[in-house]
């Protein structure tokens, strides 16, 4: 059957009406793998979904079958969608691969990506809160990915506004709009408060994440070279789901204890610290409970500090803010605000700046004593990890493409807090 499918595809004998869409890549924890995911709006009776890949457009010599997940939106139209996933294996680092996905009914165009070379510096783009209507960062991310300036993209929740809106059509439009970068650079995700509808239905079925965390992909971790990256779901706290919050905490504690990375980066959606229109900063229950804990809800900050987490990125507030290294709101103001050596505490960065229905400007907030830098621009945070002792953060403005907040973090070999 697969041979017949490939023959029909190669001859162009493809039927109308079942368009391949929303193609995107993601990483698992094997450095020679690349996961590819796509959707159709109709089933594929009597044909097999598959992908072909190779090192040139005329040499797509490897073929892999894809799994199929059928799922139904809970809106009035009860639209059914089909998600397909497969994994490319035995990939060589630094090599460009070409690929196409689909079935005998229709094949996608040919995309390409460079398999990340994890022996080289990590170059990441990090942001949250991006809408299909005001996604100001979409075009600069397309350009950065196309120009080979970033290796992986992390979207820290709140997609499309919202993925399930208009019976899921908003989610479709959004995923197709970002396909020009998600199809060429791995796209890693975690959920935000706008992604919880229908028991996270769209989040669970549209995306692919590493499988070492929860089976719905709401928390996970990834080793990329010498960097250990952890994605968490803060909505367990906001939803008062103590069972899930404790399960996630227990997993996180074990994950951090087994962490062999030289750098540790945590990402989540809701902020632990921020400046806003209150003199107390981020003092709402869903913020303080995540940070400090409550009965049945273990706080995260103490564990982050204990296990030597280097960076904590989050979004939710639609602005950019960087903070001094701190613990329990107590900042360590150690000289140069743009250079930290052997930082005594985690460095927090908020980047809810992808572009959505509203935005927060610095003059609308009361800056907290632990706040170091505020920007009112749309764009995305960057993190480059060069080796086990040197990393550089920044913020790329969506309009000018300039880095508006470069900062350096260094540490001695073997440094532990």
From TrEMBL:
Reactions accelerated catalytically: a phosphate monoester + H2O = an alcohol + phosphate
Cross-referenced Pfam families: Metallophos (PF00149), Metallophos_C (PF14008), Pur_ac_phosph_N (PF16656)
Signal peptide limits: 1-17
GO terms of molecular function: acid phosphatase activity; metal ion binding
Residue ranges of coiled coil: none
Purple acid phosphatase N-terminal domain: residues covered: 21-113
Record-annotated Purple acid phosphatase C-terminal domain positions: 345-390
EC annotation from Swiss-Prot or TrEMBL: 3.1.3.2
Domain annotation Calcineurin-like phosphoesterase: ranges: 139-320
Family: Belongs to the metallophosphoesterase superfamily. Purple acid phosphatase family.
Protein name: Purple acid phosphatase
Enzyme class: hydrolase
UniProt keyword terms in alphabetical order: Glycoprotein, Hydrolase, Signal
